[in-house]
Structures are given as C-alpha cells and as structure tokens.
Specification:
74 residues; mainly beta; five-stranded antiparallel sheet; 5 strands; globular
C-alpha cells in the first residue's frame, strides 16, 4: 500500500450500507481513532493488503469498524 489516504485523528464522513452494498442506510461525520492492516493471499499466490478503520461516530456516540470504501475525507 502506498501512502495512507486516511490518518488517525482525521475528520471523515462515514456511510453505513445495507447488506447488498448498493444502498446507503445512514451517514454522518466521525473521527478515525484506529487503523488495522490485513493481508489476504489468493489461490494464485497474489497477496492483497487492505485496511479497516475504527471510527467514532458523533451521531450515535459509538465506535464502528469500516473499510476505506465506506468513508471519505472532509
């Protein structure tokens, strides 16, 4: 992965989607409070790296884990 798009403490807009992934269920603002990198190796040996983000949601006063596709920078 190249330079990170998001950093700890960054203000973001989050999107919660329905299970099918096409429709947005809810949205709001929050702060990234943590990040975790994961590695996935496919059957052909290709290694993929991705990150999940722990986000504090102002709207609900809770913490959820989201992928980079469910957040955008403000």
């Amino acid at each position: 992965m190249s330079s990170p798009r998001f950093t700890k403490g960054q203000l973001i807009r989050w999107f919660e989607k329905y299970a099918d992934g096409d429709l947005t269920k809810d949205a709001g603002t929050g702060i990234i409070i943590g990040m975790k990198k994961y590695f996935y190796e496919s059957f052909d040996g290709t290694v993929y790296e991705y990150q999940n983000f722990e986000v504090y949601r102002n709207k609900f006063n809770d913490i959820i884990t989201l992928s980079e596709f469910d957040i955008e920078s403000l």
